[in-house]
Amino acid sequence: MQTRLNPRALDRIRYEQEIRSDTELATVLGMSRATVKRWRDGDSSPSMEQIALMVIRFGIPFEDLILVDHEAEVAA
């Protein structure tokens, strides 16, 4: 089973928090814009600590933040 960040969750956070860009979101989270871009593009995933930070900071449910790729599990 492979997990990755749901890019729609980033859009939801930005909308609900009135954050205008991924650059501003990265600043709020204390990380680089490149990191947020890699999450959005699916090139990397946030750590559990980073996910927990978003859950606490923005009040978004854990289940809404991640996508689970069940096909990757079956193929393995």
UniProtKB/TrEMBL annotation:
This is Helix-turn-helix domain-containing protein. InterPro entries: Cro/C1-type_HTH, Lambda_DNA-bd_dom_sf. One of its GO terms (molecular function) is DNA binding. Coiled coil: none annotated. Pfam families: HTH_3 (PF01381). Residues 23-65 form the HTH cro/C1-type domain. Gene3D superfamilies: lambda repressor-like DNA-binding domains (1.10.260.40). It comes from Kocuria marina subsp. indica. SUPFAM superfamilies: lambda repressor-like DNA-binding domains. It comes from the Bacteria. Transmembrane segments: none annotated.
